[in-house]
Sequence to fold (257 residues):
Amino acid sequence: MGRKVALVTGAGRGIGKGIAVKLAQAGYDVGVHYHTSKAMAADTVREAEAAGGRAELLQADISSMEGVASLFAQFEASFERLDVHVNNSGITRMKPFLETTPALFDEVMNTDLKGLYFCSQYAARLMVEQGIAGTIIQISSNHASGCWNHATVYAAAKAAVNKLTKNMALELAVHGIRVAGIAPGYTRIERLDAAPVQQVNRAIDSISARIPLGRFASPGEIGEAVVFLASEGAGYITGTTLEMDGGALLPVWADRG
Fold:
């Protein structure tokens, strides 16, 4: 058998990039999906290839069924097998509950839940067709358990992803396919806004002081967790979502004094 293959959605930057690069370093060839961040996704490909593997750019808008179909058509044209599928694509839109519009609701749900759902279905069907006992990993959020203002839509989508992980695991076990999730908390990713660096760093320091482990996660750390969940060492883990937030949800009131 040749090298194993992984597909990572939303791999242009941030957590998705960290996952794709760590999988490449662990010996996988990688399908690097992006929607609009082509230049950053190309950088992910370069880093993955530097690890000694093969990586291919795959562009699609997974908020539509046409986009999901296009993604997997491109993937199958580029790779002969699928061992690991990581649903990382997601959008975050914050709005007070009383001001949330149907358009905002659909925008978040179409990517964070519907797109994830049908990418999972395409991936699972491909694994079954190929006779591969693969792994599907969902990137959720600690918003599924914790409560922040203005996050009713985003949090509901992530809570649904956690439940979907359990039900998918139940149905796909007969095919030897495992399904697991990771729910990150605050993670240091590339900044796309124009806020001054000093201001951003002050905000990060303030938030970090309320996290028991005292810092944000790195995308690479989440990538390492994906590599573990996809490995034989995690072969008896399915239907579980790992909260990976440095203990952020643990305290009612944090005193690190």
Notes: The chain has a mean pLDDT of 93.
